[in-house]
Write a structure and sequence with these properties.
This protein has about 260 residues and is α/β, with parallel strands linked by helices. Helix 1 packs across helix 10 (about 245-260) and helix 2 (about 80-90) crosses helix 3. The protein has helices at about 45-55, 80-90, 105-115, 150-155, 160-165, 180-190, 195-200, 220-225, 240-245, 245-260, and strands spanning about 10-15, 20-25, 30-35, 55-60, 95-100, 120-125, 130, 165-170, 175, 190-195, 205-210, 230-235. The chain has an eight-stranded mixed sheet, sandwiched between helices. Strands 7-10 form a two-stranded antiparallel ribbon. The longest helix is centred in the N-terminal third of the chain and has 14 residues, at about 80-90. It has ten helices and twelve strands. The chain is globular, with a radius of gyration of 17 Å.
Length: about 260
């Protein structure tokens, strides 16, 4: 399963409840780091991080349900996402891993730590809180299909620059690697108060906040760190997508935290 060269991913898959769940294994000799992307993303979101950390950490990055090359699901519950992540680790025979998550993936990560504590040795949460109240209904206006890639990107407007990696060619035209209706449903089921899950885990944790984030406020981030033992906060000069805006600084923060364990 593991690629011989760190940072060069190998795509594999497993079946969970009749659905295909695809993931990238970036290989390497290091300890496992499960990386969970946010809405509209996919496993290759973490390709840059894998290049930075690949000599010390084996990054495994699923395309979460309804994203990338994984199948759609009839539901996008908290339990479903968490059980998918646990299934990937079980499929690979991994009994303990560091787990990193951005946004949607961040909540999935700390809920995995809360509900399957034996699977999570350390936790990195990127720019998401213990209380979530987001809205991605703007995605419902994006075109379903377009005759050409250029026309699809034009139809996506200002969002196009964030979605280029999600563009796919289908038999009936160009579209995205997810259904916006699924993303809207997933976000609505993500919203809520998750303090109990955030506080349930006691493994070492790093909370990474973008200093310009409109998703995770500064005071909320400080409260999360103050209330959870063995948790530290790093703020980097970015908005919500810290890993994309300042990739070197993000990798340094993650690598420094993991190296200190």
């Amino acid at each position: 399963m593991t690629s011989a060269v760190p940072g060069e991913p190998r795509r594999a898959a497993l079946t969970v409840a009749g659905r295909l769940l695809s993931f990238l294994d970036f290989g390497g000799p290091g300890s496992p780091l499960l990386a969970l992307h946010g809405h509209f993303g996919e496993g290759r979101t973490f390709a840059r991080l894998a290049r930075e950390l690949g000599r010390s950490w084996r990054i495994i990055a699923p395309d979460q349900r309804g994203h990338g090359f994984s199948d759609r699901s009839s539901e996008f519950s908290r339990t479903g996402y968490v059980e998918d992540a646990a299934a990937v680790l079980a499929h690979l025979g991994i009994r303990g891993a560091a787990v990193l998550g951005h946004s949607l993936g961040g909540v999935n990560a700390y809920q995995l730590a809360a509900r399957f504590p034996g699977l999570v040795d350390a936790l990195i949460v990127e720019d998401i809180g213990a209380e979530v109240d987001g809205d991605v209904s703007f995605a419902l206006s994006w075109p379903h299909r377009a005759p050409t890639r250029a026309e699809l990107l034009e139809g996506l407007g200002s969002s196009a620059s964030h979605l280029r990696d999600a563009v796919r060619e289908y038999p009936d035209g160009w579209g995205l690697a997810f259904d916006p209706k699924d993303m809207d449903l997933s976000q609505r089921q993500l919203n809520g108060n998750h303090w109990a899950d955030w506080l349930a885990g006691d493994c070492p944790a790093l909370l990474v906040r973008g200093s310009r984030s409109s998703v995770l406020g500064a005071e909320h981030a400080k409260e999360m760190v103050a209330r959870r033992p063995r948790t530290r906060l790093v703020e980097l000069p970015a908005g919500h997508t810290v890993h994309e805006t300042v990739p070197e600084e993000f990798a340094a923060a993650v690598g420094g935290f993991l190296g200190s364990l």
